[in-house]
Amino acid sequence: MKTFTFTKNIFFAALTSLVMLLTSMGCSDNEDKTATATSEHNPFDHPHDFPVTDIQKHKFEHEFAKQCVQNELRNSVNKELDKERYTEPCMCIATFMMKDLTAQEAKKFITEHENPRSLQIKFDSAAYHCLQQKAQAIKGPQLFGKR
């Protein structure tokens, strides 16, 4: 007897599920939902700006490296020696930043002579990258002569 009520409950559950499935399929509309999705304004989806030309990148690279060296020499005692020392890392930083340069950042830096916050963030990342390449191994004291 228990088997009979068990199969009876499964039959009613299956029948109820089938009816709900068919009614939900019958209620769907055939309208295209993508038309309404594209018309809505999405603040995170912005048109990508125009690519930066090679001339702008080259100009940015040299102007940024020049500005970097000038900033480093501001508090320097021996300017000639320090200029040679800072030229290579500043050029590395400018080259590293040039890879991700957007047209808006290039325009702000080259024509308006401004440093947007995005350039400051890229500078920090590039400085970390370029200066880590030059890390020298720390030499400990020689206790027992040369090894």
Topology:
Layout: H1 2-26, H2 34-39, H3 54-73, H4 79-98, H5 103-110, H6 117-133
Written description of the protein model:
There is one protein chain. The protein is built from six helices and no strands. Helix 3 packs antiparallel against helix 4 and helix 4 (79-98) packs across helix 6. It is 65% helix and 0% strand. By secondary structure, the chain is mainly α. The chain is elongated and about 95 Å long. The protein has a domain at 64-133. This is Lipoprotein. Residues 1-28 form the signal peptide. Keywords: Signal.
Features:
signal, mainly alpha, single chain, Lipoprotein, 147 residues
Radius of gyration: 33 Å
Helix % is 55-70%
Extended strand count = 0
Low-confidence stretches: none
Total of DSSP H or I helical runs spanning 4+ residues: 6
Q: What oligomeric state is this? A: single chain
In percent terms, what proportion of residues is strand?
A: under 5%
Largest beta sheet, briefly? none
Overall form: elongated
Which class do the helix and strand fractions yield?
A: mainly alpha
End-to-end C-alpha gap: 92 Å
Mean pLDDT: 77
Order of helices and strands: HHHHHH
Keywords: Signal
Organism: Candidatus Methylobacter favarea
Protein name: Lipoprotein
